[in-house]
Every structure is written in structure tokens, then in C-alpha cells.
Amino acid sequence: MSREMQLVLDSIWPILKAGLVITIPLSLLSFAIALVIAIVTALARISNKRYLQVIFGAYVWIFRGTPLLVQLFIVFFGLPKAGITLDAWMAAIITFSLNTGAYASESIRASILALPKGQWEAAESLGMTYWQTMRRVIAPQTIRISLPPIANDFIDLVKGTSLVASITLADLFMVGQQITARTYEPLIIYTLCAFIYLIFISVLMVIQSRLEKYASKYV
Amino acid sequence: MATIVQFQHVYKSFGDHEALKNIDITFQEGETTVILGPSGSGKSTLLRCINLLEQPERGQLTIAGTTIQLDKPIVKKDKLAIRQSTAMVFQSFNLFPHMKVLENVIEGPVTVLKQSRAQAVEKGKTLLHKVGLEHKMDSYPSQLSGGQQQRVAIARALAMEPQFLLFDEPTSALDPELEGEVLRVLQDLAEEDKSMIIVTHNLNFARRVADRILFLENGEILFDGTTDAFFEHNNNERIQAFIQAMQLY
């Protein structure tokens, strides 16, 4: 067996394991929190309450308008100066949730606004309250429309977690960097890392297409 | 006959455009009124004010026993009461695409009126039978023709047992071929003495079903009288020209 082949075989498990232990749980947990934030934010921004629009609009503006890596550094390295010390896990989850929440809220908001006005009017004509209209008429249709952009936000999140290497979390990519430092085989090791990300994200894409098919059954 | 819809000095404008000017009118129970008029005359706006899809800015509205002063914010309770006592059928149907036909029909009774599902289903089936679509109750709206969708929308409106049925150009989005099936349903309802207000461009239909005709132009009521008086004994030049133009078409 060639030396390169042996290197791949020796490295694949440590890298994959870091993906399974850090990258995936971090992505799933952050995404779950981000979804809740995104729904609340989208609802606040389409509400008729001016102060809600301003507060949540500012949040989205800040998180879409600054780099993810900078946000991560502020939370992990910066906040201790203000007396808030978070471990790397906590800092990562908070930052990724807020960042993805900002993007996903825009996906949801755009989907709600894309629904024909007649859907609101038909529900209102039946005498539904705002929340009945939301729950029974608007939300189910919004899910279908927002699936593709939300899946995109999720994919961006999974790839974005590679930044946690810079705040001391030994994720998939950090383990790759450590092996490279030892073996000096950046081409092989980083390609291997890319390949593992590709597998993770391909699984997501399959799930996305299943969900889209299910959610579109009435079209 | 009881009065159930009353407009008193009602004004509505969109920006600089005055859509309704000092509307003073009442609608009676059991009456079929057709509203005619050129495009932009305010007839749809008048109809949409009745269930508050448009909110006029001045005057007073009384709908099914609920009176509101329009220059003040409308209390949520009054708004919901008015909407539950009226039902609207739209030009573009506006069925809920993610619900099957029967689910569309029982949505209002179950979610708004809090009827039991079994009871709503039973009534829903009867209404779908009435509009000739019982066999489509498990289809999605996207699987239906326009005429069928509009008939489901009528069943959905009837399921609320409203005191007043409002129709906003119910056949304008339909091919002439499909128009007939919807008009037949409307005619049946008119014969049952349902209280209806219909905005339409179809003069033949108006002549056939209306007890009363309103003619609007520039946000004002130019004519309010019996169908006979409108078509046969009308010497208003503007209305004669309108009738002629519509019949030529």
C-alpha cells in the first residue's frame, strides 16, 4: 500500500469522529435554536408594532452585516472583557444560532410576504383572528415556500462551523489541521476534510428534497 | 323585513382618490342586490367595506346588529362579529390550497365557530352536494377547474351560515363556459331568498336574479331601485349608455 493511501486510512477516522462529535451536534443544536429565533424575528418584523420592527430589524441588520468569524471572536474573546466568560461550545452555539437566525428570519419573512393577499383576506372573511390565520392558513403554506432557502441557511451553517477551529474547538477541520501539521500533507488531508463535509451536506440535501416533495403534495 | 346592513354617510379614500363619497344605503334581509358600475366606480370597495376588508374613514356602519363609528379605531370584538355574520366570495376564489375541498369548507365552522368536527363534516358534505361537488371533497383545489373552485368557495361561505353573502365579481376570472355553472348556483341561492349582494359585470345575470340594482359611478350611487326600473324605465343617459356598451360587448 502506498504511503498516501495509508495516510488517508489513518486520518479518516479521527477527522470523521471530530465531525460526528463536534460539527454535527453543533450544527443541529444551533439550527434548532436559530429556527425559533427566525420565526419570532420574522413575525416581529411583519407585525404592525413599530418598536418590534425596529428592534428585530436592527438585530438582523447587525448579524447579516458583519462577518461570522468576527462575531465569533467578539463573543469568545471579547465578552470576557465585559465580564461574560463563555466556554468555546457555548460561544459557538450562541453565535451560530444568532447568525443563522438572522438569515433564516429573512427566508421566512420573504416566504410569508410571497403568499397571495387573498389568503389573508379569505381567512379574515371567515372571522379568523390573526393567530388563527397564521396557524391554519399562513404557516402551513410558508413552510413549503421557505424550505429551499432555509435548507440553504442550514448548509451555510454546517460549513460555517469550520470557523470554530479558531476558538479552540477541535472540530472536523481543526483535527485536519492538526494532522496536516504533523504529516505536512495539506492536499490529501484538506481534500479528505472537504469530502467529509460533502457527505454530511449531501445527506441534508437528500432530506431537503424529501421534505420538499412531502410539503408540495397539494400543488 | 329587517334591515341588516346600513351605511350612514360613509366615506372611503385611497390616498387622494375618493373611492366612496357619502354613501347612505340600507340592505334588507332576503334581498338579492346586484351592484353595477364601470371599473373604478367603487362597487368592490363598497362590498369590501361590509366585512371590513376595507375600513372606511368616516361615517357609521351597522351590520347585523353591530354598529361602529368609523372615525374611531374598530374594537376587535366588533370586527370579528361583523366578519362572522357576513361571508365573502372572491373573484380569485382564494381557497386554501393546502387543504382538501372538504377541509376548506369546514375550516370556518371548526376553527372560528368551534363546531364539532363531525357536525361540520356532515354539513360540509351537504353543502358540497348542493353545489354539485360532493365527489370532489378529497381533492385539492389545484385539481379543480376554476368553476369548481368557485363553487367550493361558495360552499365555504355558506358553511358559516352568514346573514349576508357577499360576492365580488365571482365569475370574472372564469371562462364563459365555466361561468354558467357558478351563476346557476347563485341563482339557486337567490331563489332560496338568501340575503346576497353581488358585484358583477354580467347584465343578463343581474336582470335574472336581482331584486334590486345599485349603480355606482365615481364613488356615488347613481341609481338605486328595482331591476325592472333599471333596465326598462330608466332615462338616465349615463346608465343607458352603460347598458348599451355592456350589451354590445
What does this 3D model show about the protein?
The complex is a heterodimer of chains A (219) and B (249). Chain A has 8 helices and no strands. By secondary structure, chain A is mainly alpha-helical. Chain A has one domain: Orthogonal Bundle (MetI-like fold), CATH 1.10.3720.10. The radius of gyration of chain A is 21 Å and the shape is flat. The termini of chain A are far apart. Chain B has a single domain, classed as Rossmann fold, CATH 3.40.50. In chain B, strands 6-7-8-3-9-10 form a 6-stranded mixed beta sheet, sandwiched between helices. A 4-stranded antiparallel beta sheet of chain B has the order 2-1-4-5, covered by helices on one side. Chain B is α/β, with parallel strands linked by helices and 249 residues long. At the A-B interface, α5 and α6 of A face α2, β6 and α3 of B.
- What number of structural domains do the residues of chain B give? 1
According to CATH, what is the topology of chain A? Answer: MetI-like fold
Per CATH, the architecture of chain A is: Orthogonal Bundle
Just name the CATH architecture of chain B: 3-Layer(aba) Sandwich
Largest sheet of chain B: 6 strands, mixed
Q: How many domains would you count in the coordinates of chain A?
A: 1
CATH fold-level label of chain B = Rossmann fold
Number of strands of chain B: 10
Considering the protein shown, what is the CATH homologous superfamily of chain B? P-loop containing nucleotide triphosphate hydrolases
